[in-house]
Structures are given as structure tokens and as C-alpha cells.
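sry for the spam today, last one i promise. C-alpha cells for design, 182 residues
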């Protein structure tokens, strides 16, 4: 019998959603990353400057991000959620140390919100993290991303003390994973 790895996982089907690993550099993954970055950057700029992110700043931020490189085998992966076949959400996992994976870039495109895409992604995260060897998940987020707080808490995450000093990290969560089935 072949051991389960995140890259041999069957897609997770949750209602109308299908969630499966995908290369972080794929066209769909890059488009979702740009939409994610634009949204969180614009929200931050509106909160702190009263305007959307200046176009040049937005382009530089998207181009400078090294996140996709951290979401590749053997220490990470990117899950892409599809609604009716259309790439509409992402969740990334990156091993920080043996047994601990960080959840990153949980995002559902605005056009697909209200369809339980966040829950579909979260249903796929635990088995994917377990396949990476993680027994614990951690994440950081910002105070203003209140929708994410509710999602994480609904899916078993609890608040913890800071585990990193990320520039935009303002709230930290963790979750123990159920032991993998043999």
C-alpha cells in the first residue's frame, strides 16, 4: 500500500466544491493570489490611509511576495477550491518545524462567497496537513479580517500567544489535529 501524501490525495468534495492540491505557480493559483493580495492590501490601506492600495505598491507587493515558493513539496502545498469547476478559493500549508504546519492564504473569491467555500477549504486542510506530517496547525491574521476569525474558530482553532513577528500579524491561532488513520 502506498502512503498517503498531500500530492496523492483524492480531491475533497464538499457540496458543490472540490478542493485539491495544485501547483502554487499555476495560472489559477496566481490569479487567486493576486485577488487575495489585492483584497487584503486594499482593506489595510482603507483602514490606515482611507484609500485603496496605490497601483504601483500593489504590483510591487504581488511581485515581491515569496509565499508561493513556501507552498511546494516537500514542505508545503497549496489547495485550490473550485466551485462548479471555477477556481474560487485557496488555502496554503507550510511546515514550520516537524509536526507543525502554518495555514496561510485562506481565501474565497468575492464572487463565490456565501456558498460555504471557506468550510470546504477547511475540510481539506486537516487531512492535507496530516499528510505533510503535521499534528498541529498554527496561523496568524489581522484584527480587521473578522470573517477569518469566525471561520477559524468554527473549525476548532483557538487563540494563542504570538508565535511569530509578522509585519501584519495581530492575532494568532492554533489547532491540534486528530491522529491520522492507519
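last one done:
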Amino acid at each position: 500500500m502506498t502512503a498517503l501524501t498531500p500530492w496523492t490525495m483524492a480531491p475533497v468534495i464538499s457540496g458543490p466544491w472540490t478542493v485539491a492540491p495544485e501547483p502554487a505557480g499555476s495560472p489559477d493559483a496566481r490569479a487567486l493570489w493576486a485577488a487575495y493580495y489585492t483584497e487584503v492590501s486594499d482593506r489595510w490601506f482603507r483602514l490606515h490611509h482611507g484609500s485603496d492600495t496605490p497601483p504601483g505598491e500593489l504590483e510591487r507587493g504581488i511581485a515581491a511576495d515569496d509565499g508561493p515558493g513556501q507552498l511546494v513539496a516537500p514542505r508545503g502545498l497549496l489547495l485550490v477550491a473550485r466551485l462548479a469547476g471555477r477556481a474560487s478559493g485557496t488555502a496554503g500549508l507550510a511546515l514550520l518545524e516537524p509536526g507543525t504546519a502554518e495555514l496561510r492564504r485562506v481565501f474565497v473569491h468575492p464572487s463565490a462567497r456565501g456558498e460555504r467555500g471557506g468550510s470546504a477549504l477547511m475540510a481539506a486542510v486537516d487531512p492535507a496537513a496530516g499528510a505533510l506530517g503535521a499534528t498541529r496547525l498554527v496561523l496568524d491574521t489581522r484584527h480587521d479580517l473578522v470573517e477569518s476569525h469566525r471561520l477559524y474558530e468554527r473549525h476548532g482553532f483557538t487563540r494563542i500567544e504570538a508565535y511569530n513577528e509578522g509585519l501584519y500579524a495581530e492575532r494568532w491561532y492554533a489547532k491540534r489535529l486528530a491522529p491520522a488513520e492507519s
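The longest helix spans residues 27-49. ok im logging off now
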